[in-house]
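Long-time lurker, first post.

We've been arguing in lab meeting about whether LPXRUNBV would sit comfortably in this protein at all. Half the group thinks yes, half thinks no, and nobody has a model to point at. So I'm putting the question to the forum: if I give you the sequence and the SMILES, can you give me back a predicted structure of the complex? Inputs are below. Any interpretation is welcome too.
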Amino acid sequence: MFTISKQFHFSASHQLHGLAADHPCSRLHGHNYICEVVLQSDTLNSVGFVRDYRELSDLKNYIDDELDHRHLNDVLGENNTTAELMAKHLYDWSHARWSEVVAVRISETPKTWAEYRP
Ligand SMILES: Nc1nc2c(c(=O)[nH]1)N=C([C@H](O)[C@H](O)COP(=O)(O)OP(=O)(O)OP(=O)(O)O)CN2
Ligand SMILES: [Zn+2]
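Top reply:
Settle the argument with this. Predicted structure of the protein with LPXRUNBV, as tokens:
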């Protein structure tokens, strides 16, 4: 099995709901996010790629246009904007385009990662 991944960086604000009132993440705040998309395949194309990293540029465009420097609560509607749910959102978006996508990981801080892998 071959595994490749690529990271996409963006900055955005959010506010989590359902937490204790004194939880800092109940307040409006922001992160420098990293989205890492993971692709796997048993086979390689004629060049030797699972998929050309450059073919993932539509995800970069989506992140730049729809998520970067935006308020994620507005983008995701009523949904909470936890890292777990952001990973699921970006997995669904990516897997619909590239069948080799098996997981998406989201980092909000240098110490944290959340992964969605069905
Ligand atoms: N399982 C999850 N826990 C938390 C999430 C999340 O998305 N999933 N999100 C947050 C906050 O939005 C934010 O990520 C803060 O995280 P935290 O680790 O508390 O960040 P700090 O820099 O304040 O942590 P330190 O321990 O002070 O370094 C919270 N939890
Ligand atoms: Zn946060």
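For your lab meeting: Residues 16, 25, 82-84, 108-109, 111-112, 114 surround LPXRUNBV (ligand 1) (CB under 6 Å). The chain is about 25% helix and 30% strand. Whichever side wins, do check it experimentally.
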